[in-house]
Amino acid sequence: MSSSPPADCLLCAAERLTSWHYEDEDCWVSDCVVCMTPMIVWRTHGLPDADHEAALLSHLHRVAVDRYGPDGYYVDGERRRIPDHWHAHARPAGGFFDPSSELYGRFRDDVSPRSG
C-alpha cells in the first residue's frame, strides 16, 4: 500500500548524507544520519505488504551481517520519526546507536528487544 508522498518527506528526498551500502530501483540501504546504523528505505512512500517487506529486509540483512556479524544485530522496524514511509534499522545487539555515532554511549543501551 502506498500513498502520495508529502513534499517534506526526508526519506523520499533520499539525500546522500551518509555512506550508502546498496541501492536498486526498489530500495536503498545507507547509514542513518541520527544513529549511524544501517537503514533500509523503500523508495515507495507508504507501507509494503508482508512478502515485499521480507524481500526488502534481505538487503538490510546482508549489510548488517557485514558490519555486525551474523548474530551481532537485530532489526528495528519501528518507524519513530517518519511513521508513514517504510524503513527499518539494523541495530547492534544490545544497543541502539552504532559505535561510530556521536550518541553511542551517551544513553543507556537498554532499548533493544534483546536486552534483559
Largest sheet: 5 strands, antiparallel
Number of helices: 2
For the residues shown, what is the average pLDDT? 88
Distance between the termini: 35 Å
SS strand fraction: 15-25%
Describe this structure in words.
- This protein is of the alpha+beta class and 116 residues long.
- It has a domain at 17-92: 2-Layer Sandwich (HIT family, subunit A), CATH 3.30.428.
- It has helices at residues 10-13, 50-68, and strands at residues 20-23, 27-31, 38-42, 73-76, 87-92.
- Strands 1-2-3-5-4 form a 5-stranded antiparallel sheet, covered by helices on one side.
- The longest helix has 19 residues, at 50-68.
- The protein is globular.
In short:
This protein has 116 residues and is an alpha+beta fold. The protein has 2 helices and 5 strands, in the order H-E-E-E-H-E-E. Strand 1 and strand 2 form a beta hairpin.
Name a few traits of the molecule.
five-stranded antiparallel beta sheet; 116 residues; alpha+beta
Give the SSE layout:
Layout: H1 10-13, E1 20-23, E2 27-31, E3 38-42, H2 50-68, E4 73-76, E5 87-92
Antiparallel strand pairs: 1-2, 2-3, 3-5, 4-5
